[in-house]
Specification:
With 273 residues, the chain is mainly α. It contains nine helices and three strands, in the order ααβααααββααα. The chain has helices at residues 3-10, 19-43, 60-68, 73-85, 87-108, 124-151, 178-232, 239-246, 255-272, and strands at residues 52-53, 159-162, 171-174. The protein has a three-stranded antiparallel sheet, covered by helices on one side.
């Protein structure tokens, strides 16, 4: 399988991912794909050839090997890597769809754009990204469970007992390099667990950031409503103006002010008439 082509395709997801997403992608291609391609395939390359049982009965070795290894670790891990990396293509496909839609909108509306940034995680793209994280974590967890259930744990025993037909009795079977295979198995299990943790952290980060934005928008809307209400209500008249209308102070020593006051009182009744 051409893993470099898959890496080149998924590397485009980096510009749409968060910090946790970039760590996840690095974990997948450095600690899982590279180890799988460079070392794991060579370690498990001789599993069938060097599987030995202490019997000369024809067919016993094949039956016992199929019983102890129902599915090869290498094929299971290859299938796991394919399933885990495929959900990221959902994000890439959604971004390409938005870019095409924005280009068509811009052509019809003379340069206007439908999306300010088609790769920004808003609206449907946010949900697509969140669903892809759920799928990635679920696939990793599912394959870890399958590996544990099929092999009854993550250990690689040096000696296995087999009594299936056509074996004449209970025979002892031995696999090659069990310690090395155990180390690689535990390494792949731990790296898968770390990738699941990164997906969960990224989901929590996205949800918390979305809630924070919604609360911020709610506060801004409340502030606008408060400002609009206060703009529409009339302002109260100054106290100094009210005092000037209700009471007029007269200086007893000033004769001009007394005369003005008398003129005001005379004009008042005449206007009423």
């Amino acid at each position: 399988m051409n893993w470099s082509a898959l890496e080149a395709l998924l590397s485009g997801v980096n510009k749409y991912s968060t910090v946790f997403g970039r760590i996840w992608l690095s974990m997948v291609f450095v600690f899982r794909v590279m180890v799988f391609v460079v070392a794991a395939q060579r370690v498990w390359g001789d599993e069938s050839k060097d599987f030995v049982c202490n019997t000369a009965q024809p067919g016993c070795n094949n039956v016992c090997y199929d019983h102890i290894f129902p599915i090869s670790h290498i094929r299971l891990w290859a299938l796991q890597l394919i399933f885990v990396t495929c959900p990221s293509l959902m994000v890439v496909g959604h971004v390409k769809y938005r870019e095409k839609k924005d280009q068509q909108y811009s052509t019809l509306h003379k340069g206007d754009h439908l999306y300010a940034n088609p790769g920004k995680k808003r609206g449907g793209l946010w949900w697509t990204y969140l669903v892809s994280l759920i799928f990635k974590a679920s696939f990793d967890a599912g394959f870890l469970y399958i590996l544990y259930h099929v092999y009854e744990g993550y250990d690689m025993p040096r000696l296995s007992k087999c009594s299936l037909e056509p074996c004449p009795n209970v025979v002892d079977c031995f696999i090659s390099r069990p310690t090395e295979k155990r180390i690689f198995t535990l390494f792949m299990v731990v790296s898968s667990a770390v990738c699941i943790l990164m997906c969960i952290c990224e989901m929590i980060y996205l949800v918390c950031k979305r809630i924070q934005k919604l609360l911020k928008r709610k506060k801004e809307a409340e502030r606008r409503m408060f400002a609009e209400r206060h703009e529409n209500t009339p302002l109260a008249r100054p106290r100094s103006e009210l005092r000037s209308q209700t009471s007029i102070r007269v200086d007893p020593t000033n004769t001009a002010s007394i005369q003005n006051l008398s003129n005001i009182t005379e004009e008042g009744p005449s206007e009423e008439k």
